[in-house]
Structures are given as C-alpha cells and as structure tokens.
Amino acid sequence: MKNKTPRQHTMLAVLTFGGGTALLFVLTFVHINQGDVSIPVSLVVEALTNPQDILAHHTVRILRMPRAVMGILAGGALAVSGVVLQTVTKNPLASASTLGIHSGTYFAVVAGTVFLPAALSGNSLFTAFLGGLGTFLVVYMLSGGRKATPVRMVLAGMIVTLLCSSMTNVLQIFYEQETAGLFLWGSGTLVQNDWSGVQFAVPFVAVSLGIVLIMSSQLDTLKLGDDVAAGLGQNVHLVKFISVVAAVMLTSVMVSVVGPIGFVGLIAPHIIKRLGYRKHFSITTASFIWGGNVLLAADIAARVIDPSFSELPVGAISALIGAPWLIWLVLRMQQGRAGEQNSSVMAGRPTRELPLTVLLPVLTGLIIIMGFISLASGNYGFEPIAFFQAVSGSSNEFMKNLIIDFRLSRALLSFLAGMILAASGLVFQGVLRNPLADPSVIGITSGGGDGALTAMYVFGGTGIWVPAGAMAGAILFFCIVMLLAVRAGFQPATLALLGIGVSAFGSAVIQILVVQADVTVTSALTWLSGTTYAKGWSEITAYLIWPLLFVIPFLLLRIRVLDTLALGDDTAAGLGLKVTRTRFQMALAAAVLAAFSVAAVGSIGFIGLIAPHAARLLIGPSHQKLLPVSILIGGLLLLAADTLSRTLLAPNEIPSGAVVAIIGAPYFLWLMRRKR
C-alpha cells in the first residue's frame, strides 16, 4: 500500500477487514434464510443463542448453519491456497483450478473409491492430497519449473485437467454404482446434512492456515526472487515445499468435503492485491475473509437462480464468475508483454518433407486398413470377404445389418467427424497464427455444447434444433473469441489461455443446463462426453454431409490465403489481401465445421490440434498441402479412437472423446516440452 497517507491506510484496512467481515455476517444471515421456508433473522439469532426443541431451530442449527459455515471455510481455504500458489510459482494466474490440482484431487478420490474403497473407509482426504500434490508437481515440471511463465504453466494445468477429467469420466462410466454419489459432489456443492463435514475440515484448515500465516514473512522474502531470497539466507526449497504442502492440503480437505470449486482462489487474492496490499500476512487474512464472501455469494446466487430442491452446483456459479475474471487478468497481463509468442517455433517443423504423391496414398492405405479393422472388431468378427458380400447384398440379413447399419455407419461417422475437426483446427491455427488453436482449446466446442444443450432443454432435442443450437452457440463463442483475439494481438499462447476462460464459462453453463434439464440428463451427459456410440447414418446425413459438400470445398478454394496471413498482417495487406475480412470469413467457416461436428458426435477435442501438427511434421508449412493431409490424418485418428473405444475394455465401451483426450493430452504436453 504505497503512496498512501496514514488516514488512507486506516480507511482501507477498515474497508477490507471490517467491511469484509460485516459483509460476511450479512451474507451468512441471507444464506441461512434461504430455503423452502423463510426463517426471520430474529428466529435465526434465537436458534443460535437460545436453541429450543422446535423444527425451525433444528433447521437452522443442523442444516443451514453448517452449510453457511462450510461456505466460509471452503471459500477462505481456497483463497489462501491461491495466495500461496501465486507466490510460489510467481504466477498471478495460479490457483488450484488453473493448475489442475482440483482435477487431480477429484480423479484420485474417484479412483480410490473404485479401487480402494476399504482403505478410504469414508475418509478421502489422504487420497485427495496425494492426487493434488502429484498433479501440481507434474504441471510445475512440465511447464518448465523455475523458468515457467504464467501462460505456459496454466496451459499445462489445462491439459492435465482435461486428461484427469477424461480418466475420471471413464471410471464413472464403468463403475456407475460405485461412483453414483460423486456426480453432484464432483460439480462442487456446499450441501451439508449435519456438522460432521465442518468438524472434519476445521482442524486441517486451521493448521494449514496457521502455517501460511507463520511463514508469511518468508513468503514476502520469496517474492523478491529465488536468488535474492537465497542471498538473504532463506532455504528457498524448504519454504516452497512447506508452502505448497499447506496450499495443497487446504485444497484437498475442501475437495474431499465439498468437491472441486474453481476460481475462488483466483478471484479473492486479486481483489486484495488490487487494493494495494503487499505483505502476505495481510493478503492471507483478507483473502480468507473475501474468499468466504465470494463463495457464499455464489451459493446464494445458485439458489436464487434455481430455488428448487435440485439446486445448481455452486461450482458452476463460481466458474461463471471466475472465467470472465481470468480473461480480464490475461488481457491485463498481455498489455506491454510479448513473451513466448513465436508461433513458428511451436508450430512444428517437418522432420522430412514427403511429397503428396507418396503421402496421400500411404494415408489412404492406412485408412482402408483401419476401416477393415474397425469393421471386423467386436463381439462378432468376420472375414474381409463378408464386407463385400454385405455391400453387394449377397449376405444374410443379420450380417448385412451388422456390417452396413451398425459398424460401417459408425466407422464412416467417426472418419468424417475427424476430417471436419482436423480442417477446423487447421484453419483456426492459420487464421489466429496460433499453433495451439483448436475448437476445444479456444472454446468453440463449449459454445456448440451450450447451444445444443439449450436446444435439447427448450425443444426436446428433436428435428433440426440440436444442430441449429450447436451452430448458434459455436458462432456466438466464435465472435467472443475473435474479439478477445483482437485485444490479445492474436498472440498464440495467450489466446489459448483466453480460450481456457471461455471454455470454463461454457462448461459452467453446460453444468447448469444439465441440472435444469431433468428429463434429458442421461442423453445430455452421453452426448457431452463426446461419443460415437449408437450413432450412424442419420447423424451423417443430418449433420456431416453438409459441411463436406459446402464448407470443405470453400476451404479448398481459399486455403492459400492462410499462407499469406502467416507472413503477417502488414505484409498480407501489402500483397492486396483484405486481412480482416479474410480472417473473419475463414474463421467463420472453421466455426461452422466445429458446430456441425459437435452436433453429430458431441464434444471431442484435440483432433483439431493433433492432426495439423502431425501434417506439418510430414509435409511442411504450405496450407494447400496441409489441408488434404490434415483431414485424412484427422479422420484416421478418430476412426482409430472409435475402434479402441469399442475394443479396449469390451464389452464395456469408452467414449471416443475420452480416448482422444487420453492420447491428445500427452501430445500437447510434449509439444510444450519441446518448445522449452
């Protein structure tokens, strides 16, 4: 709090601590008063000070008060965890959600529930702690350790989050009964039936918070830099280790009780730092207070939006608040900063440029081989000759239905959807000069999901409404991303980070829609997982044939403009290209492709990232060559993923989107590692 008079210091302290505490009391009373039955403030005070054996007092003391206290504890703990992580990593964007700690703890708890239920015996804290700590270490090392930049670290956190989420989804699908009680908890909820959750959490929160407060002066020194801190006699590694353990413990204990609730650890510390506080003791204390305020306000908002018994998860509301906050922080950091934006380095260079006359036949052959493998894989196998007999009509009715109606239609659907996603990713990468661009990474897929789910909720998911909704949602999010791209100067890694915020906002809307659409929850969740299960000719004719007939030919005619855009806006304009119009037209075409893909197979990510990069390694940077190679690789990848999804754990089936994510996430991390 530099350059402030003593009176201003006093006023700011009163506002921050006194005002924050007063607001906490007000929100607590409002929170307790929410419910099917309104309870006057006087009765709340009486229930707390002079409890009697009446229903209203029991409701306040046993149901509503524990929930409010848990909101304060969880918000405060997550905020303090964010303070510590931001200091240790020197990353203003760090929090348990952006670094993947939430997803790691959640996956660890789900895996422990499935495989070690006796060991957990109702206490998942130790498992959550190990999962959170392991995830943090993975993200920290893969992003470059001490040399990691904020953008790179959060990008690594995003990919680890996607990987953990995919593995969690697989476990929840295969072990539905064992994990049945974890769905609402996995979205973040403060619902408490008694004081047991609070009693469990308080000791761990108190000890961890005490450690952070005791080490506040050490964190002040650490903020000066590792070399300076070491020069002042600090054991930097020990301070970091203790601080990270305390931060992960704060997160883990809250996740084990209320589930993963994101962005509180990002919002609250920045509120305090924006007020001018610099000492960690003050930042930590104030962040705890305001973290409680943020989470209580989010929970109040969740019950105002949906006051029914099936209320909205508070994790979704906190993401609705936190995602725009993350976008604002990224844009603010981008001003005057250009670090790590050289797209040519990250785009991948050809190890050996192969001629199209060789590469296209090889890819076509691989696709044919994979197609036959896909057709023959399953509980009922057959010889290749059976396929030709079924096509010619000389086979029996059973084989004809099996091959043509079930397996061929699904294989063709996977191949076409992969082609469309690869083309969309290639165009986005060229338009935004961003080798990390992909419909899922930059939020377009989430927009399509929001639009399609809205259509399912409003119109019942019949007729043309689902693809129309997906189209509208994808284009809306496309417009948002393009506006952010202009603000970010089309910088590669920064734009991908902005996409995280857009995707988080879209995912929060999806959670809300799923909770609201009680009748269609099962179909919505199946669709959102990104799957080709039980899909075929109807999806091909309704969703995929149109982009193949109209959008792909348009791209084939216009693809050379991406080579011109790669030279830079000034050079492209000097060559006579209308840069803004061209960029918008090509990006709109890519968004339309993504929208149709989402409508057909749900939210399948990473195809649009992997296929263009693999193509560049094989064919070089020319987009005229990249487009046919990319779409063939994309089709091959999703066809292979669909085959694996059906056969790896047969007769159970893994969603194709999860298989792609499990393959694509390590590739993305390798790409970042290669860029170091």
TrEMBL record:
This is Iron complex transport system permease protein. It is found in: Cell membrane. GO terms for biological process: siderophore-iron import into cell. The keyword Plastid does not apply. It comes from the Bacteria. It comes from Salibacterium qingdaonense. It holds the Pfam family FecCD. One of its GO terms (cellular component) is plasma membrane. Gene3D superfamilies: ABC transporter involved in vitamin B12 uptake, BtuC. SUPFAM superfamilies: ABC transporter involved in vitamin B12 uptake, BtuC. Keywords: Cell membrane, Membrane, Transmembrane, Transmembrane helix, Transport. It is a multi-pass membrane protein. GO terms for molecular function: transmembrane transporter activity. The chain crosses the membrane at residues 12-32, 68-87, 99-119, 125-142, 154-175, 195-216, 253-272, 281-302, 314-333, 354-375, 411-432, 464-486, 493-517, 537-557, 587-611, 654-672. Belongs to the binding-protein-dependent transport system permease family. FecCD subfamily.
